[in-house]
Amino acid sequence: MTSIDVTGLARTGPESSGNGPSRSGQSQGSPGPRHDPQPGGGRPRVSDVLSAYVGLTKPRIIELLLVTTVPAMFLAARGIPDLWLVAATLVGGCLAAASANVFNCVLDRDIDEQMRRTRRRPLPRHAVDPRAATAFGLVLGVLATLWLGFAVNWLSSLLALGANLFYVFGYTMLLKRRTSQNIVWGGIAGCFPPLIGWTAVTGRIELAPFVLFAIVFFWTPPHTWALALRYRDDYAAAQVPMLPVVRSSTAVAVRILAYSVVTVLVSLALWPIAGTGWLYPAVAAVAGAALVWESVGLLRRARAGMTDALLKPMRLFHWSNSYLALVFVAAAIDPLIR
Q1: pLDDT of the residue at 59
Q2: pTM of the model
Q3: Topology, domain 49-336
Q4: Which residues have CB under 8 Å from 59's CB, separation 6+?
Q5: What is the pLDDT of residues 284-298, one digit of tens each?
Q6: Pairwise CA distance, residues 222 & 263, whole Å
Q7: For a Cys staple, 260 with which of 97, 264, 295, 306, CB 3.0–4.6 Å?
Q8: What is the pLDDT at residue 307?
Q9: CA distance 261 to 73
């Protein structure tokens, strides 16, 4: 189980805040990654080592699991699922996502050194040895697979393993550096949590969780491209061909609007397919209208020639986080009030 790493997907922190300078590419004279010297040149403190390993797992990105896994479990159970099962699924899912994120850090450490937002991560500042990080990721992956298999079920375990393998080999190693459509198809890895949550409850795959899967699939590109518009120079400096690097802001905004509209339409399809009550479609419609409105605003600013901070892509980025949370929480609450 993994959420695709767009370096700031679940929410932004100091690394990806919209309050920094708009030009974030690393110029020839800009400093490289800083090393964290230890006081007195001695051995690193245990707390620093633990913090570095936790940083490799990208805990803020793992938060997406809570947003998309637990509501799928409530919807599958048509009420409150077994709380032990919820806890076991989340533990296994967090281990799986942590494993995938660690491997992503290892494989992308050269990119992270070039990007100002990410050069403070553990590997660029040499807080963790790459071989140790690889071993850490492998241990987490094995634990996740076994835990989900024995504590939940093997279907959920295999789905989580498949998502991680696709994220590491399909997205990180194959797509990310080769195509501007990297996040479109690579984003599939981040769509698995609803499937995993649903199968944890039912033991089988049905149509309804695939609608949840599709919501995340179509939501990911506009969410990610909004962030990439803000940090276009960062991605360009690292030679990552994100769509805003290779296309104009207007062309990107058009695609963001198109994907946003499709996201809203797909979200409304859950109403008849899952047989939800009135709450879910009402929330999905209102939140979706706001998402489309923000996308239209971004397109207008792009067509007016606005760039960088004036384009305000982070407004859409932050709202898209709220949109996904509102839609999935509504899906969880809906069966409780019927």
Answers
A1: 87
A2: 0.87
A3: Farnesyl Diphosphate Synthase (1.10.600)
A4: 98
A5: 999 999 999 999 999
A6: 10
A7: 295
A8: 86
A9: 26
Instruction: Give the per-residue pLDDT at 300.
Output: 97
What are the residue ranges spanned by the domains of the chain?
49-336
Q: Which long-range contacts (CB under 8 A, 24 or more apart) does 61-64 make?
A: 61/3, 61/5, 61/9, 61/10, 61/97, 61/101, 62/3, 62/10, 62/94, 62/97, 62/98, 62/101, 63/10, 63/11, 64/3, 64/9, 64/10, 64/190, 64/193
Query: Which whole-number Å values give the CA distances from 60 to 8, 10, 56, in the listed order?
Result: 8, 6, 11
Query: In angstroms, rounded to a whole number, what is the distance separating the alpha carbons of residues 32 and 16?
Result: 18
Instruction: Work out the widest C-alpha separation in the chain, in whole angstroms.
Output: 65
User: Which residue from 227, 15, 207, 22 is spatially nearest to 105, judged by alpha carbons?
Assistant: 15
Residues of the chain with pLDDT under 70: 1-42
Decide: 33 and 124 in contact? Cβ < 8 Å: yes
- What pLDDT is stored for residue 221 in this prediction? 97
